[in-house]
Amino acid sequence: LAHPKDPAGLEVAGEIAAASSRPMEAIELYEAAIEYSPAAPASLYEKLGRQWLNRGLPYEAAEVLRRSVAKHPDDAKVRADLAGLVASLGMVRDAAVHLRWLLRRGKGGLNELIMLADLNVPQTDRAICEYAIRHNPDDLRPKYPLALETAYAQDFRRAADELAQVTAKHTDFPVAWALYGRSLVELGEAEKLEQWQQQLPAGIDRWPDYWMAAGTWAERRNEPKLAARAFWEAVKIDDSHGEALVQLAAQLTQLNRDEDARRVAQRAAAVNTMHDSVESFLAWRGNSQKAALSIAEAMSQLGRPWEAEAWARASLAMTQQLDDGARQT
Questions:
Q1: Which end of the chain is more exposed for a tag (fewer CB within 10 A), N or C?
Q2: d(CA 112, CA 98)
Q3: DSSP string, 194-250
Q4: What distance in Å separates the CA atoms of residue 306 and residue 267, rounded to the nearest whole number?
Q5: Closest CA to 286 of 87, 123, 111
């Protein structure tokens, strides 16, 4: 390069390397272009992230998009791209803040609404994960979103086996450690669970699976006070976590806190009603006005007004199971 610190020249050189299937060279050039640019555009970050994906390292691509959001917080496309990628990598909760940002600005659609309705439902992109595993077998992180699907299907034995490998290799990957602990608790593997507790990475306590593991283990040891605290921590992270709400209500009943238990159980029932309505909506292939309005009503009851409004607005385009009062909703 005639001018090695010229951002435009570095970007063009990066494009040439990318077109020649030299992703690592392109990555270095794009990184340099960003470094020497006084205000790197979102498109440059996008090119860099795409090369990490081509290299089979999607978590690095997600980190690039996080950097882009930090520099371009009002760019809806960047937020949508980041939300989609991190959700596909098993971190739907990290996507939620961006999905809500999009909805509040009228940028989100049905896909975003459905994803937000239940953050426990995996959005794993198997193609991305399997491509990454093939091209970078030493990076086991893409096995986590696959294990998440397995655990969601209640196959905790298989999930634990996969996550044992992931956590052994990646000691600072808290989301995988949280699910691994949850799987061990479900399997009742006390010895492995004790080892797990001695190696917990920083940041694990921001994932509900960690608290669900702690709460379920305390419940099985007949320690309702500890169990209630753990389930409460899970609810604080996600106040529409149906399973945590049900378990919290049960533990509060054990502690003779009947009024608190009643309120929590009411919210659990409202969450369950909302999830049932989403299932009905999906059964109608996303085209049931009554189901959409039912979801909107449930969201309103749950204190999620932006989603309630978005679902009500979306219902106006539905052509099946029409509701006579839709125009007044």
A1: N
A2: 10
A3: HHHHTTPPTTGGGSHHHHHHHHHHHHHTT-HHHHHHHHHHHHHH-TT-HHHHHHHHH
A4: 18
A5: 111
Please, is 74 exposed, middle or buried when counting C-beta atoms within 10 Å of its C-beta (0-12, 13-18, 19+)? exposed
* CA dist., res. 170 & res. 173, Å (int): 6
Query: 267, 245 in Cβ contact below 8 A?
Result: yes
Q: Tens digits of per-residue pLDDT, 137-156?
A: 999 999 999 999 999 999 99
**Residue 66 · residue 31 · CB < 8 Å:** no
Phi, psi of 288 (to 5 degrees): -120, 110
How many C-beta atoms surround the C-beta of residue 107 within 10 A?
A: 14
Question: Which residues touch 138 (CB under 8 Å, ≥6 apart)?
Answer: 169
> pLDDT per residue over 26-52, tens digit each?
999 999 999 999 999 999 999 999 999
DSSP-H helix ranges across the chain: 7-19, 23-36, 42-54, 58-71, 76-88, 92-104, 110-117, 126-135, 143-152, 156-169, 174-187, 190-197, 208-220, 224-237, 242-254, 258-283, 289-301, 305-315
Closest CA to 110 of 273, 292, 241, 322: 292
Q: Which of 254, 197, 259 is nearest to 220 (CA)?
A: 254
Bridge partners, 320 (sequence order):
288
Report if pTM > 0.70.
yes
Asked whether the beta carbons of 59 and 89 are under 8 A apart, the reply is: yes
Residue type, 305: P
